[in-house]
Amino acid sequence: MTILAIDTSTPILKIGVYKGRLIQATIVQPPLTHAEQIIPAIEETFRKAGIAPANAGLIAVAGGPGSFTGLRIGIATAKGLSLALGIPLVLVPTLDIYGFAWREMGGIVVPVIDARKHRIYCARYSHGQNMGELMDIKPDQLLPKIDAEEEVHFIGPDADLLESICLERPGWIIHEPDAEKEVAAIAELGLRIFEEKGPADDAARPIYLREPEIGIPLAR
Known about the structure:
2 domains, globular, alpha/beta, Nucleotidyltransferase, domain 5, five-stranded mixed β-sheet, 6 helices, 220 residues, 12 strands
């Protein structure tokens, strides 16, 4: 199955075409915005992959947490393509993408995304499996949750926010992002979600761990 993978949850736009492996990826760095680049990036990725968009069998899009505006752009675009091309859509939790991408690591894997206001989105994974809740916390609140671990791998776009707590712990390591590995994980997890749960419904919305600062309040 050919899968279109989309991630707009962070400032780096990631698009991939996956068919058993990552065939082609397009990575767009700031200052270009997602709204400006997402459609051209999708078109370019399919063109370089030599595959027509209509031949995709699934669209997998990062569903959050992450940038409120970025998530809305990515999911709205994915829904529009899903409707126009008749292709099913799934939302993939953003932190799960990072945990799964780095599943070969021993110890504990902790994806980190800057949540602004001196907070981070994070979670704990072991061999790609979530070990608990998705968290929206201050960096120093994470320490008691992992303090007993001898081997911790901090990953994701903002892992360096945890640099200070790694200085005196030789088994705690910050890894550089790997955009292609991460976009492949979107497709692989998306296919798993689709096979287990089917496509997302029309009401699918981003995963927010807090109230958006704009728009209507979240339903409770």
